[in-house]
Amino acid sequence: MNEIKILDLHTANQIAAGEVVEKPASVVKELVENALDAGATKIQVTTVEGGTEFIRVTDNGSGMNKADAQVAILRHATSKLRSAEDLLALGTLGFRGEALPSIASVSHFDLVTRVADEEMATHIHIDGGSQPVVSEQGGSIGTTVQVEDLFFNVPARRKFLKSVSTETRYISEMLTKLALSRGDVSFHYVNNDKDVILTSGDGNLKNAILALYGSNVVRELLPLEFEYEGVKLWGFISKPTLLKNTRQWQTFYVNGRSISSIMLGKAVEHAYQSMIPKSGFPFVVLFLEVDKAAVDVNVHPQKAEVKFSDEGLMYRAVYHACLSALTNSTAKIPEKPAEGPVQGKEEKFLRNETRYEPVPIFESKKYEEAYTPPPMAVADKWAEVYKKLDSETVNLQGNENKGVETEESVPEIYPIGQVDKTFIIAQTATSLFLIDQHAAHERILYDKLLLRHAKVDTVALLMPLYLDVEEGDLEVLLANRSELQQLGVDLEEGGDKILRVNALPVDIGEAKAQDFIGEIAGLLRENRSINPAELRREVLHMTACKGAIKAGQELNMRQMRDLLGQLLHTAHPFTCPHGRPCMIEITSDELYKMFKRTGF
Questions:
Q1: How far is the C-alpha of 427 from the C-alpha of 564, rounded, in Å?
Q2: CA-to-CA distance for 19 and 16, rounded, in angstroms?
Q3: What pLDDT, in 10s, does the model give residues 549-569?
Q4: What are the CA-CA distances from residue 12 to residues 109, 129, 257 (Å)?
Q5: Smallest Cα–Cα separation from 25: which of 218, 166, 196?
Q6: Pairing verdict, β 295-296 and 257-259
Q7: Are 487 and 503 in contact (CB under 8 A)?
């Protein structure tokens, strides 16, 4: 008896649906990408209950005639490929020809489409992969696809869907990436009769960012335009002052396609090296245009991952592009490293005479960062002396505030001045010190918070703050309300997608509340299984970072002395809570070597 049989078409489509249609956001993605490939300039997405009950995608693209519409619902039917060789030079978002039949096999499916030279639109209805019912009806030029009761005939898959708010967030995040990729297309997303996304489609990327992220983000953007060894890059990155606790604000496009790439993310991190905390991630919207034959998008059915023929080249291109935008340098960057790629090593900070420079060393598979700090012998010298934290903190509001005096006999360190309103230069009798004022104050505040073993000191707000938040953020914050109360954050639901904040940690002002709460929500959303101890540590990190003085804030000599005095009372005065250096010592012996005065 023959045991091996060919699957029927319906079963094959349902198997394909497991790869292509993972959740409602997958349906929306496939349909919107089809609309973009059809030349649409306006796309409207409507969902009910995060797409679990109803999805409709309407576009004003070219549409399909009756014959093409009937073929489009067949598996592996596509207008975007003619042969396997076409995979080497793809210029469209979709190409597999699996989306429509896969979606139709697990939903109540309706397609209405019309081309310009036909008076009537073609309507196709399919119930869970059943035989299509084809008819004619009135309709506008373009295509509308309606999907109801997704996974109604696959209950095992339906039960694995997330909450309605989470599924809505998935759709919103996916449409945000598509809207950024096509500033010339107007996107309108409505969920449960409420506007979620609305872009103008005027072709201006900055206006699209404004519509999607708001004016606070736009004010912190740096334009990027660069070319490196045949790779063209453009877009926007943020100043080091605009950070998020996760990579959610980092979006990469290769030949117009949104992709996920750890390697490109690492290239950005290394370009910002030493400018940002270890746990902070800048805003990035970066487009890369490469030879289509040098990138393989046929890696996964969802097309989110790609393979590059030369990963080292892509890494270097992104690294140098971001570095150029950050430094605003006009100096020509070498086409290639002088000695070529070095295999088997990670990128390190290498000391070069009087400064520390990032020297990129590339490896094809791993792009992790290693940091070799400068000598820290002085830390051992002061470890016992500065083991207690002072009860007062640095006062940075006045001009001549009384500093904290100590009766302990300690090496005297004197501030000399401030560089770029960011770094303090100080000295002892035998050493020169460079101090990052933000990282130093962050260490002071973090150690103070750690010593408070009970609840974090809280300020009850006279007037509660009402913050607009995403549904997913509201859900995860309220689920952790009791733990957050222990950390000085008292919040409750204040309405539909509105959070009422009644109290904040004493070091967080109302002006910083939105970013602070947003970062906590991002942390909880990324790691829902975080334990109370980890949550406490991360929130204390955030509290210290938000409460610390910023780069660019001018300090007088008294304030610098106060800051140094309290920094040296911490247990780890040479690193901030994120592990980034906050104080670097250059001993007199090292100074002699730098000036070639050894032997005298």
A1: 11
A2: 5
A3: 888 899 999 999 999 989 988
A4: 17, 10, 27
A5: 166
A6: unpaired
A7: no
> What pLDDT, on a 0 to 100 scale, did the predictor assign at position 20?
64
394: left (phi over 0), alpha (psi -120 to 50) or beta: beta
Name 537's Cβ contacts closer than 8 Å, sequence gap at least 6: none
Cα distances from 265 to residues 252, 261, 283, 425, 579, in angstroms, run 9, 6, 11, 33, 20
| Residue 312 and residue 320 in contact, taking contact as beta carbons nearer than 8 Å | no
Give the whole-angstrom CA distance, residue 593 versus residue 595.
5
Helix-strand-coil split of the chain, %, nearest 5: 35, 25, 40
- pLDDT tens digits for 302-356? 455 678 888 889 999 999 999 899 876 333 333 333 333 333 333 332 223 223 2
H helices of 452-580, in order, are: 471-479, 481-485, 513-526, 532-547, 557-567
Place 253 in a pLDDT band, splitting at 50, 70 and 90: very high
Task: Collect all residues with Cβ–Cβ distance below 8 Å to 95 and sequence separation of at least 6.
Answer: 78, 80, 81, 86, 87, 298
DSSP per residue over 341-386, as a string?
Answer: --TT--BEEEEETTEEEEE----SS---B---PPP-HHHHHHTTTT
pLDDT of residue 279: 63
The CB density around residue 134, as the number of other CB atoms within 10 Å, is: 15
pLDDT of 410 strictly over 50: no
- The residue type at 473: D
- β-pairing verdict for 431-436 and 423-427: antiparallel
Q: Side chain identity at 98, as an amino acid letter?
A: E
Distance separating alpha carbons of residues 512 and 517, to the nearest angstrom: 9
CA 264, CA 315: separation in Å to the nearest integer? 6
Distance between CA 577 and CA 548 in Å, rounded? Answer: 12
